[in-house]
Amino acid sequence: MLRGFKNFLMRGDIVVVAVGLIVALAFSTLIKSFTDSVINPIIARAQGGRTLGLGWQLGRPGNKATFLDLGSFISAIVYFIIFMAVVYFLIVVPYKKFQARRGVTAFEEPGPVKTCPACLSDDIPAAAGKCRYCGTEQPPAGAAQRP
């Protein structure tokens, strides 16, 4: 029973989804800080509003709603970078090593790509026989493409 649970948890897609959710939460914090500290004061200035900290006062002195608070935004950027480093070094790297011992490649680098001569999509896998976007036959990998 525990072996099945362990195998369930160690499936690549579950860890990828978990890391994706963690990144999304951290990114949402960054976005919220940007909107609270930069966008909202600009909007409040247009409407007439009040704040204090590192940044510029866009309206009357002491008005918090019109203060462009760069200090909070810089803090959120630092938080995001530190959080992503922790996720990478404490979750992703050990998971990649564990999966490598099991003979499974996790978080692999994307393969080589080519550009479709018909629709100019530049993310077609090099081994593809048809373009995923327009359905055009693709020259074999290694063959020179016509302009």
TrEMBL record:
<protein>
    <submittedName>
        <fullName>MscL family protein</fullName>
    </submittedName>
</protein>
<feature type="transmembrane region" description="Helical">
    <location>
        <begin position="12"/>
        <end position="31"/>
    </location>
</feature>
<keyword id="KW-1133">Transmembrane helix</keyword>
<keyword id="KW-0472">Membrane</keyword>
<dbReference type="InterPro" id="IPR037673">
    <property type="entry name" value="MSC/AndL"/>
</dbReference>
<dbReference type="Pfam" id="PF01741">
    <property type="entry name" value="MscL"/>
</dbReference>
<feature type="transmembrane region" description="Helical">
    <location>
        <begin position="70"/>
        <end position="93"/>
    </location>
</feature>
<dbReference type="InterPro" id="IPR036019">
    <property type="entry name" value="MscL_channel"/>
</dbReference>
<keyword id="KW-0812">Transmembrane</keyword>
